[in-house]
Amino acid sequence: MDFISTRIITGDVARLVAFYEKATGAQATWANEDFAELTTPRATLALGSTRTVGLFAPGSARPAENHSVILEFLVPDVDGVYRSLVDSGTVAAADLVNEPTTMPWGNRSLLVRDPDGNLVNFFTPVTPEAVRKFARVGGEV
């Protein structure tokens, strides 16, 4: 079994696509106005409108109500990502949860909220152990 993607249900697909394109530098592939995907070498972030929920199970997902999942992006320079997101206005002060901080497990992390309030962690491994861990799983650090 392969874990392929994470999907966010949103009331405004275009707004979230714009945020994630600016934040990641990845270009979205649109299937239609209700569904787009941003694909990186190791994962895909799918963004679907509330209209797609009914195709699975009506009422099973609601936009902008996530309080338990953090999306994580491995980046070569988290401090550079921080400056870029703030300088471009992609992340406003109100959406900044935590400036780049080195965590006890060896990653330097930046925590922000996307336009729907989902938590997003951009991180760079900085300790030798963390660098080795992500090198083993094919990460470019």
Short overview:
By secondary structure, this protein is α/β, with parallel strands linked by helices. The chain is built from four helices and eight strands; from the N terminus they run βαβββαβαβββα. It has helices at residues 13-24, 53-56, 78-87, 128-136; strands at residues 5-10, 29-32, 35-39, 44-49, 70-74, 96-102, 107-113, 119-125.
Helix content: 10-25%
CATH architecture call of the largest domain: Roll
The fourth-level CATH homologous superfamily of the largest domain is 2,3-Dihydroxybiphenyl 1,2-Dioxygenase, domain 1
Main beta sheet, described? Answer: 4 strands, mixed
Contiguous low-pLDDT stretches (5 residues minimum) are none
Radius of gyration, whole Å: 16 Å
- What is the element string, with H for helices and E for strands? EHEEEHEHEEEH
Strand content: 25-35%
The helix-and-strand class reads alpha/beta
Work out the number of β strands. 8
N-to-C span: 26 Å
Give the overall shape: globular
Question: What name does CATH use for the topology of the largest domain?
Answer: 2,3-Dihydroxybiphenyl 1,2-Dioxygenase, domain 1
Please give the domain count.
Answer: 2
Mean pLDDT: 94
Strand order of the largest sheet: 1-4-3-2
CATH class of the largest domain: Alpha Beta
Per DSSP, the total helix count is 4
